[in-house]
Amino acid sequence: MLATIYTGSRPSQQQGSSQEQDKITVVASFYPLYEFASRVGGDRAEVSSLVPAGVEPHDWEPTPQDRQRVQSASMLVINSAGFESWADDMEANIVVNTSEGIELEHDDEGEGEEEDNDEHGHEGGVNPHIWLDPVLAKHQVEKIRDAMVSADPANANYYMEDADRFAAELDSLDAFIELELADCGKSDFVAFHDAFAHFAERYGLTQHSIHGASPEGEILPQRMQEIIELASELDINVIYSEDLIDSRLADTIAGEIPDGRVLVLSPIEGIDREEQQAGIGYIDKMKENVADLKVGLECRQQQ
């Protein structure tokens, strides 16, 4: 079962020469949390991701080796809000629930649509994709910071300073998105799966999606026809695919709408090895998303 989060103070690292060698070990469930933990932990933490680079995380399941790695780590960092269906059975020393404290509204309407489309709904009727909203992402960073400070109080100032620096970057990203999307001809867009609800709410947009909670699984012909009719009704000519899935479904829908085209809107649930090697990270991916979103929303170029 999941360990209780912050059940009292953790022992500090030993003093002396061993302190530099004793890093806290952090296992993050999937990519964005891996980057957030890496940015906060810096060279005081050994951070790894359970879901490998380039792997879509929705239907991923941990191996016995993964479970062993979590057991031996200082902490497990998860998104929660129903995203990691396997987490309840995971044994960990500390579990950092990065969505704790965020009030997520129950999406009863979305749940009904999920059932109609033969998809698996979000657990508890909430949308877990909070990392795509930079303001909520900052909350996740703060939860990770607090966990690291609790686990390693001797280096508390280090973690707090790293978190402050990254939070400032997230504030700048929020302001950048606000400015870039301030003057657009449209506010509706079609995402590949239901990942951008929090992003859309933050920036005054309306997300429509082909898939529901997960980008995988069969889409019924009637759902495809609904999206085609919706796109025509709203004068949408860009259908957004994703970077970790096959784009053929989006291509098919785009081929049925006037001047239809496909662009990528990444849910940033993982990055491929090439991006990782090139040093492309969360903020880069968010800015790529904004650039492609501006095309579909017909936004004016900012000076």
Automatic annotation (TrEMBL):
InterPro entries: AdhesinB, Bact_metal-bind_prot9, Lipoprotein_PsaA-like, ZnuA-like. Keywords: Signal, Transport. Residues 105-118 have a biased composition (Acidic residues). One of its GO terms (molecular function) is metal ion binding. Pfam families: ZnuA. Residues 1-21, 103-127 are annotated as: Disordered. Gene3D superfamilies: Nitrogenase molybdenum iron protein domain. It comes from the Archaea. GO terms for biological process: cell adhesion; metal ion transport. Residues 1-11 have a biased composition (Polar residues). Belongs to the bacterial solute-binding protein 9 family. This is ABC uptake transporter, substrate-binding protein. It comes from Nitrososphaera gargensis (strain Ga9.2).
